[in-house]
Amino acid sequence: MITRRSLLASAAVAPLSLSAALKPRLRPALCAYSFREDLQKGTLKYEDLIRISAENDLDGIDMTVYWFPNTENSFLIPLKRAAYKAGIEIYSISIRTELTKPAGPARVEQTANLKKWIDVAAKLGAGHIRVFGGAVPKDSTEADAAKWVAEILSPAAEYAGQHGVILGLENHGGITDKAENIIQIVKQVNSPWVGINLDTANFRTRIYEQIEMIAPHAVNVQVKAMVRDEKGPAPSDWDRVAGMLVANNYRGYLALEYEEKAPALTATPALLKKLRAVCATYS
User: How far is CA 240 from CA 39, 135, 170, 209, 270, in A?
Assistant: First the structure.
């Protein structure tokens, strides 16, 4: 007999059961940074990158904000509309931060910067922001620097959560040079609104070992054409990366961040075709 109590009990566990039942899903995307030279020169605009993403049958775009002309509605709202009309999700924006700051004016500045871009992300409909930890200041320890990053991210996470935006701390040198450090920071913050933006080509030692360590904490993932360690450059093994992600129940974007010398306009189509194939294989 189904009672009100049993019905409520089953409803309470339904979200967990649904989450556990979800199949792996990787969604192909493009990082706007791939076209940094064109954006810097003005030969392409952000709207052009939306078109390129649609032409290459992608699902989303990570808008690196470095070349935004402004953050006014007059720029942001038409960009959001262009993405919607093209069937491309602006799922993330990428910003520069330096969070290894002790209490003081520099920390206040970093906090204000985070809030500014959280507001922009929410306005664009982006659910994620990539942030950097920053360098370990001179005469400071890694432990100090990691603590400062967590102290800035904790209140920022609360503000981000109020806007439905996840902060992804990228493994990008400095205090986030080692998987152990970045995982420690994220665990210290202990918020559902802070995770790791995994750049699979940013480690310079133990590349795939460190990727596997971070995979359970990844909220966004970027791949590049090449990886580089003490042995030199080598093609990035996207299949190996995808296997690690799905083994850790990652469901989300796998975005190409192109950084090689050949022009992005001519080099990226083949890479994006490969990316689509990898995403389809592991979804």
Answer: 32, 29, 20, 11, 19
Which of 223, 198, 225 has its CA nearest to residue 210? 198
Q: What angle do CA 196, 199, 143 make, to 5 degrees?
A: 55
CATH number of residue 63's parent domain: 3.20.20.150
Please answer whether residues 200 and 241 qualify as being in contact, where contact means their C-beta atoms are separated by less than 8 angstroms: yes
Helices (H), 42-98: 46-55, 73-86
Q: Are strands 232-235 and 226-229 parallel, antiparallel or unpaired?
A: antiparallel
**Domain presence at residue 9:** no
Residue type, 156: A
Whether 217 and 186 have beta carbons less than 8 Å apart is answered as yes
- Quote the DSSP letter at residue 133: -
User: What pTM, to 2 d.p., does this model score?
Assistant: 0.92
- Report if residue 2 sits inside a domain: no
Helices 105-124 and 142-162 cross at an angle (nearest 10°) of 40
- What averages of pLDDT result for each successive group of 10 residues across the chain (283 residues)? 42 46 92 98 98 98 98 98 98 98 98 98 98 97 98 98 98 97 98 98 97 98 97 97 97 98 98 98 96
Buried b / exposed e along 252-262 (16+ C-beta atoms within 10 A): bbbbbbbeeee
Helix residue ranges per DSSP H, the chain:
4-21, 36-41, 46-55, 73-86, 105-124, 142-162, 179-189, 207-214, 238-247, 264-281
Dist CA 256 CA 261 (whole Å): 15
Is residue 7 one of the residues assigned to a domain? no
